[in-house]
Amino acid sequence: MAKTNKTPLIRIAKRAQLPWYKAWAIRLGAVLLALILCGLITTITTGLNPLKVYATMIDGNFGTKRRIWVLLQNMAVLLCMSLAVTPAFKMRFWNIGAEGQTLMGVLGSSIIMITFKDSMSSGLMIFLSLVTSILFGAIWGAIPALCKAKWNTNETLFTLMMNYVAMQLVNYFVILWENPAGSGKVGIINQSSRNGWLPEIAGNEFLLNILIVLVVTVVIYVYLTYTKHGYEISVVGESERTARYVGIKVGKVIVRTMVLSGAICGLTGFLLVTGTAHTISSALAGGRGFTAVMVSWLAKFNPFTMILTSGLLVFLDRGAGEIASVFGLNVAFSDILAGIIIFFIIGSEFFIDYEIHVGRHKEQNSVQDKAEAPKS
Fold first, then answer.
1. Is the pLDDT of residue 16 over 90?
2. Would strands 362-366 and 10-14 be described as parallel, antiparallel, or unpaired?
3. For site-directed labelling of 307, which of 220, 224, 255, 363 has its Cα 20 to 30 A away?
4. What confidence score (pLDDT) does residue 3 get?
């Protein structure tokens, strides 16, 4: 007796790991399809030539030497935040608090630069700003980690709510230090003396920031890939039960990893104040803490791949603003185009991990046990 089973007409199956070149071919194909769709939408809704629109996006990012350096600087800030959340995400700790942890780093540097603006050398001020920013960010990351390890609190809500606490703390100090009085702004810190500002390298104000973030990228890659701590993060992320079984102290790993995440966010805040904006504001992080989540996931927690994903998102963001300015379009339309491209890129990951089978075929399963088959 045999039983016949019919498989579904359309089946989704887990795909074996693709070679890197095939995976990137799928991603590039997704970008090409997105550009074609965006071109159709642009032509239909605005009557503009989509090629001119794309050329404007490129010019907005690479048109001048200054624009290229601004692009690289914005990439560095977003990449640094993405590196910060990656260890926690790999551990399956959903740290949505990079925004707040970065703002605490901003506050730490600002306290040193404003308090000691006339009584400390620039070199010592930079060092103390770095230490204070990293410390503030680490503390802000440790608080939800300790609560998670001790009371199993929801880290997503906890870290999200701490963003708003950090914003209000920064707003409080902005009002305390506002210059001029009543403006609600601090202005450029130590503008005349440049005390506490990161030095320029080869006449470029952003180069040191970029180099620091590149060093952090290499360090995080080595940490996650080749160290005992990185191995423990991977095991905890796979299964906390397995981690405990092999003797890993899960609570300790959670706290240690979140201290690291918060510290790197604090470093980002330090770079924003001492190397880029030279001021303090609750909007200084610019929502990049949430964009960093997308960068980390798109790169599948690979620090070097994050360089590409952060570059793409910054390119789209700056390009969207450029076409809105040049063609007089609503900014929302530019964001729609960027959103379509990002959607296609995210969707391409499905086709990298899974394959679709179309068509039916019959499977016959013997009812009689093979062990009972007659022997020759």
1. no
2. unpaired
3. 255
4. 53
DSSP SS3 for 211: helix
pLDDT tens per residue across span 80-122: 999 999 999 999 999 999 999 999 999 999 999 999 988 899 9
Q: Report yes or no: 78 and 288 within 8 Å, Cβ to Cβ.
A: yes
Asked if 129 and 108 touch (Cβ cutoff 8 Å), the reply is yes
Name the β-bridge partners of 366.
2
DSSP for 337-363 reads HHHHHHHHHHHHHHHHHEEEEES--EE
Two tokens, residue 48 = 């503009």
| Residue 100: predicted pLDDT | 97
Instruction: Indicate the residue type of 214.
Output: L
CB 124 within 8 A of CB 274: no
Q: Give residue 296's identity as a one-letter amino acid code.
A: S
Q: What angle (nearest 5°) sits at the alpha carbon of residue 213, between those of residues 70 and 100?
A: 85
Give domain limits for the chain.
1-48+327-376, 71-323
- What percent of the chain stands above pLDDT 70? 93
**What single-letter amino acid sits at 222?**
V
274 touches 110 (CB < 8 A): no
Q: CB neighbours (10 Å) of residue 279?
A: 19
Tell me whether the omega of the peptide bond preceding residue 180 falls within 30 degrees of 0, making it cis. Answer: yes
Q: State the greatest distance between any 2 C-alpha atoms of the chain, in Å, as a whole number.
A: 101
Do 148 and 97 touch, CB atoms closer than 8 A? no
Q: What superfamily in CATH does domain 71-323 come from? A: ABC transporter involved in vitamin B12 uptake, BtuC (1.10.3470.10)
Both tokens of 43, joined, read 């032509």
Q: Strand locations in 240-374, DSSP E?
A: 354-358, 362-366
Higher pLDDT, 366 or 331: 331
Instruction: Give the Cβ contact number of residue 335 at 10 Å.
Output: 15
DSSP class of residue 198 equals P
Sort residue 93 into left (φ over 0), alpha (ψ -120 to 50) or beta: beta
* 13 backbone dihedrals φ, ψ, rounded to 5°: -130, 150
Judged against a pLDDT cut of 50, whether residue 31 lies above it is answered with yes
Residue 184: predicted pLDDT: 83
Question: Model's pTM, two decimal places?
Answer: 0.89
Predicted confidence band at 139 (pLDDT cuts at 50, 70, 90)? Answer: very high
